[in-house]
Specification:
six-stranded mixed sheet; about 350 residues; 14 strands
């Protein structure tokens, strides 16, 4: 691959129906939030308001924080499901044929016109350039299976575009249907053998990047579960007190959502795993680990977490839990993506200064 010594950290140092939701600021917060939120307590003491609110216009999300030094913009895309392959994939056809036949033609999420995943990926790169995004986040399932040809195609286009990018894997990126091995084993193997160039030298299971005072966290939850190391990573980053956004492939559980919002879903497990035969993979565990449930609880309790961005379901959705918005992108195989802006907010004046 080109430029194997360049990492996302190097890049980061370089300069339908209208839906509108707005987050709260201290003056408008419900009483229980104002009374219990460490972020609000810090603001009352004169510190900067970290999580000031959010707004949403279709696919454009704005997060507000007085603790960022300048606007930060990212484009988030997941579920492109590229299936380009060549002779190197012949030995794996029995494992790739089913997914290779899917997503060849799609309908564009805006126009409804016929398109395809490769055209949509290139369109998303152009949108990121036009938006002058600080970086592009590839939120998993960029591939339908771990094809060398597809990985090389993506790397060539990312490098040609000159865009900074960050990547975390989805459950299809490393999955050959019917191949022997646990999900954890297959993920480890195919990240090492195929997907590694996309990480730019960083740790595939979790990473943090900082820009203008904002921390961008990526955590691989593509097996639906969280490891002890990932939980400790999140705790360390959250303890900094800096504003953060979290990017994952599988959305975190929200009340009323199905098991597809499976990371931390209390009903997740073998009893509700309807797709393991279709996907030719091991059935889910009986239930989530205690670590995964702790992760879910601690994420939504973090006062400096501005928002969560995910894919996996292929359906655009927004949930607001404990003041934290979680936005799920539509499938990039149809051109869907999110434009996320983190904007500085002047501190709320104290009564004595009004």
């Amino acid at each position: 691959m080109k430029h194997p010594d360049r990492s996302p950290a190097d890049y980061l140092s370089r300069p339908t129906r209208r839906r509108w939701l707005r987050g709260v600021v201290v003056a408008a917060a419900p009483p229980f939030l104002a009374a219990t939120s460490p972020a609000n307590e810090a603001t009352a003491a004169g510190a900067k308001l970290i999580r000031a609110g959010f707004s949403q216009d279709d696919i454009r999300i704005r997060l507000y924080s007085a603790a960022v030094s300048r606007p930060v913009k990212l484009v988030f895309a997941a579920d492109t499901h590229l299936s380009r392959d060549d002779a190197r994939g012949d030995a794996y056809r029995e494992f790739s044929a089913h997914m290779a036949g899917g997503y060849q033609l799609t309908k564009h999420f805006k126009t409804g016109k016929e398109t395809n995943p490769e055209a949509c990926f290139e369109e998303t790169l152009e949108i990121a350039r036009r938006e002058n995004a600080d970086f592009l986040v590839l939120g998993g399932d960029i591939f339908s299976f771990p094809s060398e040809a597809a990985v090389e195609w993506v790397m060539a286009r990312l490098e040609a575009a000159g865009l900074p990018w960050l990547y975390t894997a989805g459950n299809h990126d490393w999955h050959y249907e019917g191949m022997e091995g646990s999900s954890a084993e297959l993920r480890e193997r195919w990240i090492a053998e195929r997907l590694l160039p996309l990480y730019g030298g960083r740790e595939p299971m979790h990473a943090a990047f900082e820009l203008a005072g904002l921390k961008v966290l990526l955590i691989d939850n593509s097996t639906y579960e969280i490891s002890p190391g990932q939980l400790e990573f999140f705790r360390r980053e959250a303890a900094s007190g800096q504003p953060m956004i979290l990017c994952v492939h599988i959305p975190l559980y929200a009340p009323g959502r199905p098991a597809g919002f499976g990371c931390g879903h209390p009903a997740w497990g073998a009893g509700v795993d309807k797709n393991h035969l279709i996907e030719r993979r091991p059935v889910w565990a009986e239930h989530h680990s205690a670590v995964t449930m702790d992760f879910h609880r601690e994420v939504f309790a973090s006062p400096n977490l501005l928002g969560i961005f995910a894919g996996h379901t292929h359906q655009f959705s927004t949930d607001l839990l404990q003041g934290v918005p979680q936005v799920v992108a539509g499938a990039n195989a149809t051109g869907a993506h999110l434009v996320v802006e983190v904007l500085p907010l002047d501190p709320v004046p104290s009564p004595t200064n009004i």
